[in-house]
Amino acid sequence: MLWTDAEEIGIALVEVHLDVDPLTVRFTQMREWVLQLPKFSDDPSSSNEATLEAIQMAWYEEWKERQP
């Protein structure tokens, strides 16, 4: 996975952090969680605010679908 794979990263994050509302997570924490994903292999310094926002929104959409 690369930073540009927002949807794939969002799905992976919701699977690991199902009980976490993505909108409550700081970008710094989310960035660390992305870097810990087993399939993530991009340059850690290549993220930026726009990329992290896209990941957060993709994660949020996936998270919403899984809520009871």
Descriptive keywords:
3 helices, mainly alpha, Arc Repressor Mutant, subunit A, 56% helix, 68 residues, globular
How would you portray this structure in words?
The protein contains three helices and no strands. The protein has 68 residues and is mainly α. The chain has one domain (6-65): IscX-like (Arc Repressor Mutant, subunit A, Orthogonal Bundle), CATH 1.10.10.600. The chain is globular, with a radius of gyration of 11 Å.
**How would a textbook summarize the main sheet?**
none
Number of strands: 0
Distance between the termini: 29 Å
Report the structural category.
mainly alpha
**Approximate strand percentage:** under 5%
Work out the helix count: 3
Q: In the residues, how many domains can be counted?
A: 1
What's the mean pLDDT score? 97
CATH architecture: Orthogonal Bundle
**CATH homologous superfamily heading:** IscX-like
